[in-house]
Amino acid sequence: MREFMDGAEAIVRGALAAGCNFFAGYPITPSTPILLQMLRELPKVGGVGIQGEDEIASIGMCIGAAMSGAKAMTATSGPGISLYSENIGLAIMGEVPLVIVDAMRLGPATGGATTVSQGDVQFLRWGTSGGFPIIALCPTNVAECYTLTQQAFNLAERFRTPVFIATDKEMVNAQQTVDTDAFQPLPAVNRALAPQDAEYVPYRVQNLSDTPAFAPVGGDHLVRFTTSMHDERGMLTKKPASVDKKGRHLNEKIEAHRAELEFVKWEVAPGATTLLVGYGITARSLIEAAQLARAAGKKVSTLIIYSLWPVPERALRLALQGITRVIVPELNLGQYRREVERAALACDPRPEVIGVNRIDGELITPEEIVEQIAG
Q1: Exposure winner among 55, 69, 155, 182, fewest CB in 10 A?
Q2: Does residue 252 form part of some domain?
């Protein structure tokens, strides 16, 4: 069936399909349509939607709801992520399953509220203290907004961590005709629950890469929850061994599973020495640019990245084999190009990595990419 919709509606549908039953957010362009639709749709399925008094209150409500057992989501844009920062750290420290949509707009500060950008790519990874890893997924079209939102919930539940959906103003707000048969339903993943009849230690894991079992606040077990460094029982501590174990666990529960967190689409043109690497809205121009180049007799391979963080290093290294020229289009000044350059350091010979960048509020055209392919 074909419908006329935008990415906001697809994200909402994906969240509901994943079992989301709590949403809190504050109006901010361009993410407001997600807020409005969640407020409308959640009561229909017995869920709760709240417009908070500000961004800080909104993500705080989501953390509280998630720790009470809800599947929670919030949505904002760059200035809101700035305000979310401390509570994102709390969600990492407290191992809170939470989905956060960032509909990127031009920055810094209030920037261009109605202007497209991909300027938050590094901000999502490094936007809170500590430097611990997060997971960030990035759709390139409306159908993927639906599927990757479900995937985001599944990953948040499995790893008990904040998972970002990195999207943008054009993806969220621009309406288009969509074949909803491409909306792929995914089996829902739910967090592992602690047994009711056994001792519950809130943050105990057998291996550093494991995820602790969950017990809801207000349930059958005593749950200690704090933003401070704590031991496996949730008790504040400065003991070096306990602090080290907690920090390494927060790192390893994601880093040890990198191979399972690589979501890419790699199209190989046999004999190609040029590779186009892209994500999000610019990937659409990248796909068309590759088609134009191939029609002109040029051999071009493409790699579309859906999992921005952790960086899909294995997929990048494979795609870079035999490549001499890499082109990375982005609506920023080369934030993800840096990650591609790091992957390219291991190549011999090392390919040239070229950025195609705009920060003027306009989309990158396929022709701008083709110019770089021509070299």
Answers
A1: 182
A2: no
Task: Answer yes or no: is 150 within a domain.
Answer: yes
**Domain of 177, in residue numbers:** 2-182
The number of folded domains in the chain is 2
Residue 235 structure tokens:
């008790």
Mind spelling out the 3-state secondary structure of 189-241? CCCCECCCCCCCCCCCCCCCCCCCCECCCCCCCCCCCCCCCECCCCCECCCHH
Which residues neighbour 26 within 8 Å (Cβ) at sequence distance 6 or greater? 35, 51, 52, 53, 54, 55, 57, 58, 76, 80
Angle between helix axes 313-320 and 337-344 (nearest 10 degrees) is 60
Same domain for 19 and 157, yes or no, is yes
Query: What separation in angstroms does the CA of 288 have from each of 136, 228, 266, 283, 368?
Result: 25, 49, 15, 9, 11
CB atoms within 10 A of CB 282: 28
Q: Are residues 156 and 280 in the same domain?
A: no
Token readout for 317 is 């290294």
22 and 163 part of one domain: yes
